[in-house]
Every structure is written in structure tokens, then in C-alpha cells.
Amino acid sequence: MMASGSGLDPDITLQNAEFRLERVAAEWADDTRRNVADVRKAIDEILRANASTPFGGLAGEKLVNVLRSQFGTLQTLRIVEIGFK
After folding, report:
1. Lesser CB count within 10 Å: N end or C end of the chain?
2. Are 77 and 32 in contact (CB under 8 A)?
3. Mean per-residue pLDDT, 6-26
4. Cα dihedral sign for 66, 62, 85, 77?
């Protein structure tokens, strides 16, 4: 779905994820032949559900785990069955 500048960081800020949302949703919609508005809404819900603030909310911006969000998108769009706990 998204990657950091180095491509190695597992988390990016929620703000950065939202900045990339339009482009990412358009790509997913094109690849899966779905309505871009529906895909955008699904991905936005996944990002918000998976956002967390470091140190139990005591410091920093909300972060989103890139891999977990990508798997959530795959599962939501029913491309694969993946289970996380």
C-alpha cells in the first residue's frame, strides 16, 4: 500500500498514509476493477482502525503499520484470506 522513504520502516504516520490515499485507492480500484470511491472508503477505514500512537498515546503522531494495512486491504477486498490477532 505504502512505504517509507527507506522502504524499510514498518510504520508511517497516519497523515502520510492519508496523503497517499487517493493514489493508492485509484491503483487498487484499477487492479481489482472496483469503484474507486468504495475502495477509498474501505482503505480509509482500515487506516483509521489500525492507527495507534506510540507509548500508549503519550507521545508522537498516530502511526499506521504498512504491512498490516496492506493485508487488511487485501482481506477487505476479498483478494485473500488472512488472519491477524
Report:
1. C
2. yes
3. 87
4. negative
